Amino acid sequence: MAKNLQYEGIKPEAFDQLKSKLQTYGIKLQSNSGSFSEKGVSGSYDYNPEAETLRLDSLTVGFPASMMVNEDSLQARMDELMVQHGGRPQH
What we know:
Number of strands: 5
Oligomer: single chain
Order of helices and strands: EHEEEHE
Mean pLDDT: 90
Number of helices: 2
Structural class: alpha+beta
Strand content: 25-35%
Radius of gyration: 12 Å
């Protein structure tokens, strides 16, 4: 089942750090909004630097990523990562 996640308190510097970290999960964010589909992980995102919010919509995990994570475990990892960078989960 697809996940929709939202985070508040994501400063622009933290978003840049998050983009680098997310690449280790196979998720490449090219700009402030768009979609991704890497190694079985797909979804769309929208980062608003003025409001310091980040939305991840329709987050799904398929093969080959599903061999290591599912949507729930990916959400837990994302929540942990966002909190480390000053974000607050809003879901």
